[in-house]
Amino acid sequence: MPIVPDAKDWTWVLERTCAECGFDPEVIAFAAVPALVRTSAERLAIALGRPDATARPDDSTWSALEYAAHVRDVCRIFEHRLDITRTGSARPGPDIGGYDPAVTVDAGIPMFANWDQDATALAENYGAQRPGTVAGELRTAAENASHAYGSVAVGELDRVARRSNGSQFTVETLARYFAHDLVHHVYDVEKVGAEPVR
């Protein structure tokens, strides 16, 4: 059975607690996001040292390697989206298969393209990547994203951008949305791992 594409709109996690991973947007301060990104990425990088890191727990669930490669690209993309939202303009983006870095601006509000993460997983062949390489790239991408979010001034938190499917974000809600993605994927990896990742 192939991986079922995830077509859900996860923006609801900005309004209520995620019943699966426990992420609560009401208690995550913007200032906590950089450390949360680093911690989550490190836990995933450590999981890549497990002997089962490249194995899918079942045919319809990613392996720890695939989740880690995905989170590496999430960090790169959300650093790009932050740059777009802060500047209100098109900005150079990462070169990732299946990711469209194009931006349009309407009435001063930038709009970035919706991202098909499953198309990227196929284009980048996540399952064939080397765990050690992905671990290093994940740590670097998370550190770069953490630095970018950590450099945001208070006066920038209300700056707005839109996603092409109609969702609207401020810098602050974009950060929470980003943080949930990482926390949730740590949960995804830990719940099927041979041992919890500490």
Structure description:
- 44% of the residues lie in helices and 8% in strands.
- It has helices spanning 33-47, 64-87, 117-123, 131-150, 171-192, and strands spanning 103-106, 109-112, 160-163, 168-170.
- The protein has a 4-stranded mixed β-sheet.
- Helix 1 packs parallel to helix 5 (171-192).
- The longest helix has 24 residues, at 64-87.
- Mean pLDDT is 92; it is low at 194-198.
Task: Give a nutshell description of this structure.
By secondary structure, the protein is α+β, with helices and mostly antiparallel strands.
Features:
4-stranded mixed beta sheet; disordered C terminus; alpha+beta; 198 residues; globular; single chain
Question: Topology of this structure?
Answer:
Elements: H1 33-47, H2 64-87, E1 103-106, E2 109-112, H3 117-123, H4 131-150, E3 160-163, E4 168-170, H5 171-192
Parallel strand pairs: 2-3
Antiparallel strand pairs: 1-2, 3-4
Helix pairs in contact: 1-2, 1-4, 1-5, 2-4, 2-5
What average pLDDT do the residues reach? 92
Q: Give the percentage of residues in beta strands.
A: 5-15%
Structural class: alpha+beta
Based on CA atoms alone, the radius of gyration comes out at 16 Å
Count of DSSP-assigned helices: 5
Distance from N terminus to C terminus (CA atoms, Å) equals 31 Å
